[in-house]
Amino acid sequence: MDDSSPVPDAPPVGAQPARRRGFRPVPLRLLLPNIVTLLALCLGLTAIRFAMDGWIDWAVIAIAGAGVLDALDGRIARALKGTSRFGAELDSLADFVDFGVAPALVLFVADLHAAKSFGWVATLLFAMACALRLARFNVMLDDPDQPAWRKNFFVGMPAPAGAIVGLLPIYVRFALGLSTPSPRVAVLESLYVLAIAFLMASRVPHFSGKSIGRVPREHLAVFLVGVAAALLLVFVFPMEMLIAVTLAYLGSIPFAVRRSRALESAGR
């Protein structure tokens, strides 16, 4: 029987069969930090929804929760040796939403809308300052010539701190039981938000907290009791605790500037 179908050419002698391409499995240690980052992003977006629905207090809590997760994802990545360029880029994009867009919109819906166009300008500048702060941080990561002491300082207010500190007018209003601010008060609040935006975009040094080491064993019990007391206070008096944290952080800025200048002078 004649078969007229073409016969495929035989592979050359010694040729290796072509390997089928596919996706390489990704270790769980690389996925876990990114999952935490995505959870923080969900909280930031949910804060915007809460603000649109009028639940300003829940919007503030969602942003604070995103800040906690943002502090954890990097530490989890370093502990699991799961750092990656993809994770760094994802973290930066999530931070812009969580600590730039979300707090700016929450501030505008809650208070700054009373200042009309000036409040919206403050909202826009706050978000833009956060974007500039994150872009500069990413660029500085690739700078190998930085002195060792600089790792203890942030250049400009970090984005999570900017979000928490920038929401101070809302904390005060809820803690004192005040109503929606008048246009004059909203203008003052807008000026405060612009000052925080300036600190984020500036080169003013801030303590990074990365130099905090292990707790001495003899102080471990006191440390645990302090942490437990702080968590209880946060649950019972959330707005008052956020006010205290904000004021303490603002009060640390002059000390960070003085310490940074002293180290810079000693290193020359």
Give your account of this protein's structure:
With about 270 residues, the chain is mostly helical. It has a single domain, classed as CDP-alcohol phosphotransferase transmembrane (TM) domain (Four Helix Bundle (Hemerythrin (Met), subunit A)). The protein is built from nine helices and two strands, in the order ααααβαααβαα. The chain has helices spanning about 30-50, 55-80, 85-110, 115-140, 160-165, 170-175, 185-200, 220-235, 240-265; strands at about 155, 205. The chain is globular.
Question: What are the SSEs and their pairings?
Answer:
Layout lengths: L27 H25 L3 H24 L5 H26 L6 H25 L11 E3 L3 H8 L1 H9 L6 H19 L3 E3 L12 H17 L1 H30 L1
Antiparallel strand pairs: 1-2
Helix pairs in contact: 1-2, 1-3, 2-3, 2-5, 3-4, 3-5, 4-7, 5-7, 6-9, 8-9
